[in-house]
Amino acid sequence: MLTDAELMRYNRQILMPQWDIAAQEKIRAARVLIVGMGGLGCPVSLYLASAGVGELWLADFDTVEESNLQRQVLFREEDIGCPKAEAAARQLAKVNPHVTLKPLVRALDADSLPALLADVDLVLDCTDNFSTRDAVNRACVMAGKPLVSAAAIGMSGQLSVFHGQGDRPCYRCLYPEGDAGSATCSESGVLATVVGVMGTLQAHEALKCLSGVGVPLFGKLVVWEGESSMWRTLAFRRDPACSVCGNPEVSKS
Ligand SMILES: [Zn+2]
Fold first, then answer.
1. How many domains does the chain have?
2. d(Cα 197, Cα 43) in Å, to the nearest integer?
3. What CATH code is carried by the domain that includes residue 245?
4. What is the Cα–Cα distance from 213 to 235, expressed in whole angstroms?
């Protein structure tokens, strides 16, 4: 049950015709893992905390650097040198004291992910490298948990929600060969607002998945071209021969 203070705090959401107290209680009961507290992870965690998601696990092994402050909007000058997960938890606690925050100052890999995923309802991939993305996708498929994934580079971004169950494709269904050759923002740069746009949309998809309100982007890739500010939406299917979520017998034949 939401307390009177929570009903007051979330009043503008509960007022919406699509959203009600039951939706608000669902997100309060939810626990999510955010992998990467950089340019995407900052707006993701800020909106999920302010909207009232009950428990946020914040994973990042890195510390705040001066060059992060251009786009990683949770951090302040005094956070330079501090672990990002801990600095983020400090800021988010000031935004919403009703939310439980668990900073995880370590790198996540194929060995550590399964145990973490057993205890969460949804994962947000806010990393910028293929090997972590691939490991997070594999672990999510194995655990049957939805994965909200975004990427931002230069002046454009991409967004989708993966699952690898039923007719919902996984990340590898979309990128069977991987995208290991793609650039990262540390190599190619990124405009501050682009991670803000894409991270906010990631938080939006997570709220839809957790509340059951609206239609999440399963099987759809949204591409935002920031130079023209035009959107494209591409549909893709689950690959029966996918090396991660497919049937191994299909991929052999
Ligand atoms: Zn797949």
1. 1
2. 9
3. 3.40.50.720
4. 21
Q: How far does residue 246's CA lie from ligand 1's centre (Å)?
A: 6
Pairing label, strands 147-153, 156-162: antiparallel
Q: 137 C-alpha to center of ligand 1: Å?
A: 9
Q: Which domain holds residue 43?
A: 4-252
171, containing H or E segment: helix 171-174
What Rg value do the Cα atoms of the chain yield, rounded? 18
Span 180-228, pLDDT tens digits: 556 666 778 999 999 999 999 999 999 999 999 999 999 999 999 999 9
Spacing, Cα 245 to ligand 1 middle (Å): 4
Residues by chain with Cβ below 5 Å of ion ligand 1? 164, 170, 172-173, 242, 244-245
For residue 87, the surrounding DSSP H or E stretch is helix 84-95
User: 35 CA distance to ligand 1 centroid (A)?
Assistant: 20
* Selection from 65, 35, 6, 227 nearest residue 145 by Cα: 35
Residue carrying the six token digits 């909207």: 51
Report the alpha-carbon distance of residue 192 to residue 39 in Å, rounded.
Answer: 8
Rounded to the nearest angstrom, the distance between the alpha carbon of 164 and the centre of ligand 1 is: 5
Per-residue pLDDT tens digits for 131-153: 899 999 999 999 999 999 999 99
